[in-house]
Amino acid sequence: MIRSSRIGLAHSALALFAVAILVQAARVQLIQGKGWRARAERQQTLDKVVPAHRGEILDVSGRVLAQSREVVRVEIAPREINERKKLRLALVKLKVEPAIVAKALDTSIKYVVVPGRFRASEATQLIALRGVKSFASVERTYAVSEGARGILGSVDTDNKPVGGLESSLDSILRGKSGTATMVRDSRGRGRESPTAPGVAPTSGNSIVLTINADLQEIAEKALADAVARMGAEGGDIVILDPHGGEIRAMASYRPDPRQTAATVLTDPFEPGSTFKPFMAAALIDRGLVTDADSVDTGNGVLEIEGRKNPIRDDHFVGKAPLSVVLRWSSNIGIVKFASRLTPRDKYETIRDFGFGTPTGLPYPTESGGILRAPKSWSAQSPIALPMGYEVSVTPLQLALGYAAIANGGELVEPAIVKQVVGPDGSILYDHQRRVVRRVIKTATADKVRHMLLDVVDEGTAVEAAIDNFMLAGKTGTPRSTVRGRYVAGRYNPNFVGIFPADNPQYVIVVKMTAPQSSIYAAQTAAPVTKVILQAAVAAKDAALDRAKLASSVHPKNDTVISQLAVAPSREDSGVAARAPAIAADSATKGVPFVITLPALPARPAARGLRTVPDVHGLGVRGAVRSLHSAGFRVQIAHGASGAPATSPAAGEMVPTGTVVRLLFDH
To answer: Which tens digits make up the pLDDT trace of 89-111?
Structure first.
């Protein structure tokens, strides 16, 4: 009896154990089944992020400036490697340093991170080996110079934007990452799951810029050469279409390679005399000046009560109308004419031309410059503003202001993005011209533009004149500040050109920062402008309408132009050696990129003497060019009938830098 009860207890215990096993099995399979299956899948599979390609950035002609490519980062576990020979060959093929290869084969080392990144297509054999782990990413490559990189920006190792258009347009350029399910095989190698294909990444949208890559390269090369030749601290260039506001080239250059910021957008400066046409436009538009009006500039020195330093003119013009005041950049003349404008008139004119506020370009650190309201002006502000002081502007703002003069009086919104193109090729955005406001009447704009044509033909900007074509423009030689204070001998010469003057296609701004060779825009910024325009005309594609350009031949030129190509100019004033040399490829090769700036006049020695050249038989333009090239400053004065004469007379030996009065009946 006792024995049977023990057997019964044992059977009962076994039965209960069996029931418990069944219950647990049912619980695991029926209740916890999904969880255990997911855990098993996690041990055998891995969800891998597949990075999306950022959209491409292209120039206006479709040339790729920035694009993304798939790359991998590799890590190796030497103890897991069972095909050591294949590993060595794969690493050598990828040009991995021998020291890293040795570490990857050393089983005493647990883990090796291979430096650098490799194209996924080139690292296929390495990634397939057991013990090699790869991490996919996307690398951004750029086909632009360092100067343009400041505008485009860049991305970091995690494909995150850093500055420039990459940052401001990130929401458009970045795509949407995908996922891939990886399954480990019996050898521990990863394979993409055939049953769980994952989600494919979506590439970002591409952006077509208004920049013309050929013109951009011309501008950058000319600027870099000019900075080196002039001993300048840097320089900036903007070239834009005055009608649509589309930026064709935008370059900033500093000799220090660490300074890559787009200072053309971020560093405002006092423009000096290039600001005078805006005051002239205000006077004409309000009917405050006529062709018969003139002001007396006296002997070129004007003392003003309360002003520390007198106002001086570099060129003597005597009693002059507004057109002559602009032609010879008379400070006294523009101050006297501008006194007809109220402080409110001056402020509204400057504001309406777009100064004092950012242009709206999609650049993260664009400066709006400085324009103070009249209530914050000092007693000298109404005098300083017409001369381009007590106001700061960026080169882009200056270009847009002149664009209003070039296009008939409308301030247009600048554009650097022409199109946004989806991954499927569809056009998501197409730039259309946008007018901010009408600033001046069309007749006013035309009149000011013709005045600026005289500045290049016969005035302070003759060094910018181009054979065969009309160029309008204005020079400025403003003093430069360092930490808010003017520094003696430090200037920011700049030139703004409208090309061609009769049917504008470009507005170009060239600004040099603290050049050492000469402080004058006529000898620094103006010649750079000439070089760029000559190279652009000779280039195969520099955003110029050839048909319109062919109809813009200078009326003073009798040559019939059958082909739009500009050879190195040789002036008849005896300065042929100063002509810019442009080595152009054949028409099939396109852009001439071998650019040599005109040789600048030597910096005047303290007591160097030179002979005053004979300008008899030359026009005003040729006479001024000849005197400038000899190292003299020039003042225009009444006194000669017909052919020009000089004081001191031709043949006299005088110190370089001397002011030579050009006596001419103008």
So the answer is: 888 888 888 888 888 888 888 88
Round to whole Å and give the CA distance between 112 and 1: 73
**What's the mean per-residue pLDDT of the chain?**
82
Answer yes or no: is pLDDT of 55 > 80.
Answer: yes
Query: Which of 251, 266, 257 lies closest to 511 in space, CA to CA?
Result: 251
Its pTM surpasses 0.70: yes
User: Two tokens at 538?
Assistant: 């000779």
What 8-state DSSP symbol labels residue 27?
I
* C-alpha–C-alpha distance, residues 246 and 215, integer Å: 13
Question: In this structure, are residues 52 and 178 in contact, taking their beta carbons and an 8 Å threshold?
Answer: yes
**What's the CA gap between 162 and 145, in Å, rounded?**
17
b/e burial code for range 121-141 (CB count within 10 A of at least 16 → b): eebeebbebebbebebbbbbe
pLDDT tens for each residue of 612-629 = 888 877 777 677 777 777
Closest CA to 636 of 621, 616, 652: 621
Which uninterrupted H or E stretch holds 10? helix 2-26
Q: 548 pLDDT exceeds 80? A: yes
Q: What span, in angstroms and rounded, lies between the C-alpha atoms of 399 and 449?
A: 14
Alpha helices in 286-371 (DSSP H): 322-327, 331-338, 343-352
